Structure formats: C-alpha cells, structure tokens
Amino acid sequence: MAGKVHPNGLGINLKPKKEKELVKWFLACLLFGKVKFIKSDKKLEQMKSLVVFYSMTGTTKKVAETIRKILKCDSEEILDMRPRKGVLGYLRSGKEAMLKNLCKIKEAKKNPALYDLTIIGTPVWSFNVSSPVRAYLHHNKEKFSRVAFFCTMGGSGGKNAFAEMEKICGKGPVALLELRAREVANNKLMAKVKAFASEIINS
Question: Using an 8 Å Cβ cutoff, are 87 and 111 in contact?
Fold first, then answer.
C-alpha cells in the first residue's frame, strides 16, 4: 500500500481545505504509514524549494519553520526596514495594506530563480497581503518558477490575500494554506501543514 495511497482514492477531498477532510487525511497517513507525502523523500530531494515569509509577531514564522522542516527546504525571512511596533506601527501597517503600498525591505539573500518552487507566507493585514510580502513579490515576480501560498490571520481575509498574491506573481499557486493565529498559538497547525505539504509534493 505504501506509496500508492492518494486522498482522492480514499474519498477525501483536500481542495476546500475543510478541517474534517484534513483530519481524515492526517489519520489516513498515520494508518497507512508511508503514503504519498511521507514516502516522497526521493521527490523532495529532486525538488528544490524555498520558503519565504514575513512575520511581525512570530506567528507566520512559526508556520514557515514547520513547513521548512517537513519539506526539508531552504527558508528566508523578509526583513522590513520600517518600524512597526506599538499602536502607530499597527495602524501604519493596516493603512499600507489597504492602499496596496510597497514598503522598503532588505535585499533578499536567496534567489528564487534557483528554486523549482517558492512557498510564500504572509500575515493578513486589513484583509490584504502584508506590504513587505507585496514588495517582495513585486521585486521577484519574474524569478518564480512555481509558487505556493500560506497565510496567518486573526479572523478572515486569506482568500483576498491569496488573490492579490496570484495577481502580482502572474502564476496560480500549486497549494494554499490558511491558518488562524489561535490555531498556531495553540499548536493546532500540524494536520493542515502536513496536508499542504502533501499537496505541494504531489503537484
């Protein structure tokens, strides 16, 4: 059975990202052992991936590090050059996101053109992609081969942020992951992250 199990073959639909379906797939992985996303060490070695993220509070960084460990890939944190601490920083961040402004970020150390897949993560600000991630996308959109997106949010806005990211990149993502901040804080992210990783490997 190892290496031949696919979610669709078990009647599990991962596309809507419903928690019930994700949990079913996670349990199936535990039951069958080395199913597709676990058995794909060879494919992981062949696929060179980069996780790029911005994180103001550490929430998105925690998700990015989890993805990096599962996929055994490189990572890079987007470094903002604008102070965002306190109430003024919070308000400035929301305004930038709403107005779709670009902000100054430090030059990236890793070139996404050297990777088969770039996995990009953002916090959701005012129902939009964060301005540091928007800046990164604009600076590097010609360098992406394939992309996948993930986001963290207090409530909602993930779909709108993903639509923005896709529009800027000009590429459809091979996989999407939305996580609420409380899921990350309470360490209830693993099933969704593993399903996201599985979708990436099998894409």
Answer: no
Do 52 and 73 share a domain, yes or no? Answer: yes
- Which one-letter DSSP state was computed for residue 16? T
pLDDT tens-digit readout, 100-156: 778 889 999 999 999 999 999 999 988 889 999 999 999 999 999 999 999 999 988
Q: Are residues 28 and 77 in the same domain?
A: no
- In the numeric block, the tokens 């209830």 are attached to 188
Cα–Cα distance between 151 and 179 in angstroms, integer? 6
Are 158 and 86 part of one and the same domain?
Answer: yes
Q: How far apart are the first and last CA of the chain?
A: 20
Alpha helices by DSSP H, the chain? 19-32, 36-39, 41-46, 59-71, 86-99, 131-140, 158-169, 181-185, 190-201
Q: Domain residues for 30?
A: 1-39
> Which residue(s) pair with 177 in the sheet?
150
Number of domains in the chain: 2
pLDDT of residue 96: 74
Is residue 144 within 8 A of residue 50, CB to CB? The reply is no
Place of tokens 């929430």: 59
* One domain, residues 28 and 92: no
pLDDT, tens digit, for every residue of 47-87?
A: 899 999 999 889 999 999 999 999 999 999 999 877 777 76
Same-domain check for residues 114 and 34: no
